[in-house]
Amino acid sequence: MFRQSLLALSMVALIGTANATPSSTGAQVVSQVPKIMQDAQGMMQDQAIASLKKIIPDLVIYKISQSPVRGFMDLDTSVDRIYLSEDGTVLLKAHSLALINTSNIKLDGSIESLKKLVADNMNSPVDKFHAEKNYYVLTTANNTIIIDKNNTTQAIFGMFSTMQQLQAMLKQKATEAPAIDTAPSVAPLPTSKTQSSSDESLPQMMQKTMQYLLKTMPNNFVNFKVKKGGDKGTLYVFTDYTCPHCQEFHKHLDDFLNNGYNVDYLLLPRAGANSLVAQNMQKALCAVNPKIAVELLYQNHALPANLKEKPNCKADIKANLAIASSNINVTGTPTIIGSNGRVTAGFTTSLGVLQKLGMKV
After folding, report:
1. What pTM was computed for the model?
2. What is the mean pLDDT of each run of 10 residues along the chain (361 residues)?
3. In angstroms, what CA-CA distances link 62 with 27, 55, 79, 235, 237?
4. How far apart are CA 299 and CA 303, in angstroms?
């Protein structure tokens, strides 16, 4: 109702302006519409944030950015990550998720195929479904999943609540205990296939996942190729240049390249999507030469101000975070996946990594 009233008032203001200025052309009037609509959207976002802070007075919002779903803000807050829509829909303890089609589901654009994809990625059947103007809402036993109608490859999920429900829940907590936690509990990340699959099927699933990612988002990989001779395989490494073990791995990068193994980095900012580390990683992915940019990050933890970037860069560091929340189940860096589908984490020696992955030395 608020949205409709606000837009109506905006159009009235526009018509009033047009009537008050007879000399204005139709083109000039129409040119004002996008700005008025943008201002209206901003007002709705401000009201939604104000309503949330009224319910949680101690809430501190460190940064606001756009989420993967239109109409939802990504709030980095003192009580964890929150996705908030303009109309007051709240996702608490929220995460983003890359929807990876490792089971070769026939995606024909139907709602049923989308339900199957979500159930496959969340390891839980979809109980409920409905469509809003710009997005789909799907519910499993433990989470609410929201997907943009224009981009069904990524999702956001968490504990769903309206402002009224959140307020009622916090009031109930206040009566149950003298001290309350303003961050309501929510089910953990969906159980990964890596936790439930047999040892025999897990490598196959990992292989399919990496092949899918290489095909659908190649710009998010930073490729280091073998320096001589034929290659024996590839190591896919989720890495963060601020991570000590990742630094050690990177120092031994040539050991793998000289031994016949390609290394593909997937940059993963442990500090989150809104951190300076994530910003640096995004710039590195979009650099004319991402390998050189990554080298600079590992050496200096910073990039030069005059770094040249590719036009129309399609890489997205937020997608890497979504991938990590998917069925790959990356919980730390470095996480290393061999082209044979086996997985290991951490770093001791290059020989030790290859042995843990069951790859030829």
Report:
1. 0.60
2. 36 35 46 49 79 86 84 84 87 84 83 91 89 91 90 88 84 60 38 43 84 90 86 94 94 93 95 90 96 95 92 90 80 92 91 91 77
3. 40, 17, 11, 36, 30
4. 10
Contacts of 347 (CB under 8 A, 6+ apart): 245, 246, 248, 249, 252, 334, 353
Sequence-distant (≥ 6) Cβ neighbours of residue 65 within 8 angstroms: 73, 74, 76, 273, 274
Residue 21: both structure tokens together: 């200025």
Q: Distance between CA 276 and CA 2 in Å, rounded?
A: 36
CATH class of domain segment(s) 193-357: alpha beta
The one-letter code for the residue type at 34 is P
| Phi, psi (rounded to 5 degrees) for 75 | -105, 120
Question: Domain locations in the chain?
Answer: 1-52, 56-190, 193-357
